Amino acid sequence: MQALRTNDFDYHLPEELIASHPPERRDASRMLVVDRNSGSIDHAHFADFPNLVEEDDLLILNDTRVVRSRFFSDDGKIEIVKLEGADATTWKCLVRPGKKMRAGRSTTIGGITGTVQEVLEKGERIIRFDAPVDIERHGQLALPHYMGRESEIDDLTRYQTVYAENDGAIAAPTAGLHFTEEILSRLDHTAITLHVGVGTFAPVKADLVAEHEMHTERYEISEAAARKINATTGRKISIGTTVTRVLEHAPKPLQAHAGETDIFIYPPHEFRQVDALLTNFHLPKSTLLMLISAFASKELIEEAYAKAIEARYRFYSYGDCMFIQ
To answer: Which of 44, 54, 229, 295 is deepest in the core (most CB within 10 A)?
Structure first.
């Protein structure tokens, strides 16, 4: 098989199809239904999703909660995205512009001074503040750059699933944004946790797909979730690529544990745990597009995306969705 190139996963998306705001109702999104066996591609709405779920099927959700991780210095010259905190005053961050935040340089957020302790190999900074920063007051959601706007009040609820529980994500597990509490109450489900990081948006810079270095994300599987997933006799329906990565990374049968995964799924990949997948539409040349191309087939996904663009579907985080079964 010829080596896959990143450019093999490119496509043209008209800019006006990028969803910069959520639909008025969570379940109002459109849904493309893709059948891997027959190759059929049908148009539906997410409100129809429960009709496609069979009696013994189990939905597996990602219950991470998006936290405020984007900050600006008091003078507005420095942008800081907090990746994780060793403690209340020591952060691992991305900063922009980096040339103004070399080791030893300082900035202030809400009057609290932070000093760069170390510049890591991939450009992240370790910043130590002289007191805890008021995150609720000074932090914003780090919306994806393609939305082309700053976060707004509505994003605090809409860029969050209705079942979010565990703080830690920088980006939302967007396939779950379509669910309402009413729809979820009608379907058998369980949840794992994967804290989605900014790496999910990182471009693939390698020419050859296999040479891309995948980002690492933290996850946790509870005993109750492992037991329920192992016991299911129907299809395991993964709600999003984040759930898919955890299930394909973890040993089978599942056991309760916490860990990190840098699994990179691209064609060909033999899926061990996932039987069906609900997902949003992904960026060209992204690792997420490669993952769904492995789950269906590259050719079927290319056809589905072409039909979605032709039918004027809304793309990316706040956009419409696709159910691949």
So the answer is: 295
Does the domain at 6-66+143-324 match CATH 1.10.1760.20? Answer given as no
> 60-102 pLDDT, tens per residue?
999 999 999 999 999 999 999 999 887 889 999 999 999 899 9
Q: How far apart are CA 324 and CA 245, in angstroms?
A: 16
Has residue 31 got a pLDDT over 70? Answer: yes
Domain residue ranges of the chain, discontinuous segments joined by +: 6-66+143-324, 70-138
- Measure the CA angle with vertex 246, ends 161 and 267; round to 5°: 110
Strands (E), the chain: 30-34, 41-45, 58-62, 64-66, 70-72, 79-87, 90-96, 106-109, 112-119, 125-129, 166-169, 189-194, 217-221, 236-239, 257-261, 276-280, 321-324
